[in-house]
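Why does residue order matter? Because the sequence determines the fold. Keep that principle in mind as you read this record.
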Amino acid sequence: MAIEEVCREHGIESAHIYGIGSINEPVFEDGHRVACIATEIAIENGSLENTADGLRASIDAAVVDTDGTIYHGRLARGDNPVGVTFELVIIEKRGS
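Structure:
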């Protein structure tokens, strides 16, 4: 939801989202939780769209835990706090 807020503040209504970082105990939309506070993630496909419910970010990511297990999926909205750092790039989609 922080991505949505930043985009709202800057008037961005549609964007591509890229990034790497750490998330504490990531949760995917399907309810799966990675029980590890030291995970690293890479956004594989991220986007922001203006929907009937407002701005919504969709983040498909690869997550690796401390055992080296890799998980893939769409991160659950509002349930993935950043661990230590997260590098994020938001590129606005502009109409042609």
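The first strand starts at residue 15 and ends at 23.
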